[in-house]
Amino acid sequence: TTIRDGRDAISQLDIENALTEQIVGVANPISEFDPEQREQVATHEAGHALVSRILLPTMRITSLSIIRRGRGILGFMRDVSPEELYAMRVARLCARIQVSWAGDIACEVIMGERWMGGAGDFQHVGTMMTVLAQHGVFADKLPLDPMDAFADEEIQKAADNYSARMKAGTRGLITKYQEVTEALRDGLLEHGELNSKQILDTFDAHGLAKS
């Protein structure tokens, strides 16, 4: 890209684009993307970005996209930690659960109904909930069988209640900051992808600058 654009130096955007291609694949746009489906993908990814910004403000959102990558990824939100993580607070993992819920919930709140397409997010939620159960977060007890943590009825009930609270909290954030979510969605619909500066500018314009 640098040579093709006639530049003699690599920019931060060049680095971000290269990392994106390495992680999620080369762009493979859908030539005739149904407008409503495209809006759904944009709303979904905007929801992820909004909740990441609110609950994990130290994370840097490097890219937001509704351009298909490879043959299967219709959209994505990529956020990275500014430091290496060798241990994680329980609260941080809980925030990641809410970020994962946010795409599906954003569609429900903004578009008025749930859509299919969040299977990967739900798998992430399931994995993280299992980790919490294995660490005794639910019902203040460790599962007798760590490989089947939710076989314990008390743990399962506590996890269900916890999940409901997490979803309600996420829905509250999307509702409270719906204008910001819609601004990110509109940016995606206009450009297809947003880089870190464009995302940050959108947050800043709506009073969500980092403290």
Give a structural overview:
The chain is mainly alpha-helical and 211 residues long. It contains seven helices and three strands. It has one domain (12-205): Methane Monooxygenase Hydroxylase, Chain G, domain 1, CATH 1.20.58.760. A three-stranded antiparallel beta sheet has the order 2-1-3, sandwiched between helices. It is globular. The mean pLDDT is 85.
Q: What Rg is obtained from the alpha carbons, in whole angstroms?
A: 19 Å
Largest sheet: 3 strands, antiparallel
CATH superfamily: Peptidase M41
N→C terminal distance: 34 Å
Order of helices and strands: HHEEHHHHEH
CATH C-level label: Mainly Alpha
Helix content: 55-70%
Question: What is the number of domains?
Answer: 1
Which architecture name does CATH use? Up-down Bundle
Q: How are strands sequenced across the largest beta sheet?
A: 2-1-3
CATH topology: Methane Monooxygenase Hydroxylase, Chain G, domain 1
In quaternary terms, these chains amount to: single chain
